[in-house]
Design a protein that fits this description.
The chain is mainly α. It has one domain. Helices cover about 85% and strands about 0% of the residues. The chain contains 17 helices and no strands. It is globular and about 65 Å long. The protein starts with 13 loop residues before the first helix and ends with a helix.
Length: about 450
């Protein structure tokens, strides 16, 4: 039973394996974005545009900190996938245990530091005075939940590394339903305002993480470890640190550009902040397939590099690019035709200016979804293959592009420059990632030829 919970991606049709892994990942991410969207919808509908702007103004700093947590956990899970591909079960268990020890330490330190600094950061970001209190009330609670973020992402990352993308989906569905119920209860019944939406998110994620943890302990015999395997190991921790920190920094470095951009948006006013908040939530929902493709390629690349099967990596890449490109065209058509109507989920019909700006934001971003697909596919594949430092440099490219938009373009061109900021970042990252991947494969094939 436990053996069947894993999935070996080093044998069989790459397309079939990718699709089979991708679909549960996609639904999991859709549900994750769904309950994030529900937070924003309920805030906008029941608490008003000002509260919507308050929550939206925290998006970039939220992404920078929570994204770092997610990146670190993804990095810790990559050696697990590699050892699974090598069929080295003892080392797999050691990497799992030491990743957990490191995650606990990271969570404790980060929770204290960011909770102390978060109001200062909002001030530095030029958050408008009429929404800064609401922004602080929301983001402080989200940061208190950093341990829950580490718990879910660490455990689900290990489960996915063993080829099981369905189980995290099941528990995300449960937590999504719980999150919606808590949103309504805390905001409408308890009158907790934006802090209620944040508490709903934190509690739901904690429940999902605990459920995944119990499942992993019960179902995966391959993870049943001895006392020696579970004890801290300095060399393994250093290896994990070298994998996890660059991936965490990749998210955070990318997010620095988003922080700069958000600061520029804050300077335009609350209407622009609300428009970007709603547009970003919708866009993140439509971008879930790209995130799912990326996570799929990280596991696929990790297992196959562990098994030394380079040809399978190339075949998987081509299949993923095809999948991402087809979806990009469909998404653009949907957002072009119905983007304004989707914006009605967040604000009332009389908010004409916000609805127009949301539609413009969505269409401009969707026009560049193919470059975004390439960013996720190449970046996560490179990470899965063990070259996470290159992914950091791609994040630097994104940061630079968004910072240029925030510092130079938004003050001159206004809101339309905000719409083009992310597409510029995606193109900049692709210009680095694609040649990097080709260079890695050339080097690996050269080594393979010499050792044959």
């Amino acid at each position: 039973m436990a053996k069947n919970a894993t999935k070996d991606m080093t044998c069989g049709s790459p397309v079939r394996l990718l699709v089979g892994f991708f679909i549960p990942m996609l639904f999991g991410m859709l549900f994750q974005q769904f309950y994030s969207m529900v937070d924003t919808i309920i805030v906008g509908k029941y608490l008003g545009v000002q509260a919507l702007a308050a929550v939206g103004s925290t998006g970039s700093i939220n992404f920078m900190i929570i994204g770092f947590c997610m990146g670190v956990c993804n990095g810790f899970a990559i050696p697990v996938a590699q050892k699974f591909g090598e069929k080295n079960d003892k080392q797999l268990r050691k990497f799992t245990a030491n990743g957990a020890w490191l995650a606990i330490a990271f969570a404790a330190v980060m929770t204290v530091v960011v909770c102390v600094l978060c109001r200062r950061i909002l001030v530095w970001m030029n958050t408008p005075a009429d929404i800064i209190d609401g922004a602080y009330a929301y983001i402080f609670v989200i940061f208190l939940g950093i341990p829950a973020t580490y718990l879910y992402n660490m455990v689900s990352g290990i489960i996915r590394s063993l080829g099981d993308s369905r189980t995290p989906l099941i528990f995300l569905i449960i937590s999504s339903i719980l999150n919606i119920a808590l949103d309504l209860f805390m905001i409408i019944v308890l009158k907790m305002g934006v802090a209620g939406a944040a508490w709903a998110t934190v509690i739901a994620q904690a429940v999902s993480g605990i459920c995944c943890l119990f499942f992993m302990a019960k179902r995966f015999e391959i993870l049943h470890m001895t006392k020696e395997e579970a004890s801290p190991d300095r060399s393994i921790m250093l290896h994990l640190f070298g994998m996890g920190l660059p991936m965490g920094l990749q998210y955070s470095i990318t997010a620095i550009g988003s922080v700069v951009l958000q600061t520029a948006v804050n300077g335009i006013g609350s209407v622009a902040v609300a428009s970007v908040a709603a547009g970003s939530k919708i866009s993140m929902f439509f971008c879930c397939p790209f995130d799912a493709l990326g996570s799929t390629m990280a596991t696929y690349g990790g297992q196959n590099i562990g098994a030394r099967k380079l040809d399978r990596i190339s075949k998987g890449l081509h299949a993923a690019v095809w999948m991402g490109s087809v979806y990009s065209v469909i998404a653009l058509a949907v957002l072009w035709l119905f983007g304004r109507q989707i914006g009605l989920l967040f604000v009332n019909a009389d908010q004409v200016e916000i609805l127009d700006q949301v539609h413009r934001f969505l269409v401009v971003n969707a026009a560049f979804y193919i470059p975004l697909a390439l960013v996720n596919i190449y970046r996560f594949l490179i990470q899965g293959m063990g070259y996470s430092k290159l992914a950091v440099l791609a994040g630097v490219c994104e940061m630079f592009a968004r910072s240029v938009a925030g510092f130079c373009l938004v003050p001159v061109f206004g809101y339309i420059a905000v719409c083009f900021a992310s597409p510029l970042a995606w193109i900049a990252a692709d210009l680095f990632l694609v040649p990097s991947y080709l260079g890695i494969m050339k080097k690996l094939k050269s080594w393979e030829g010499r050792n044959a």
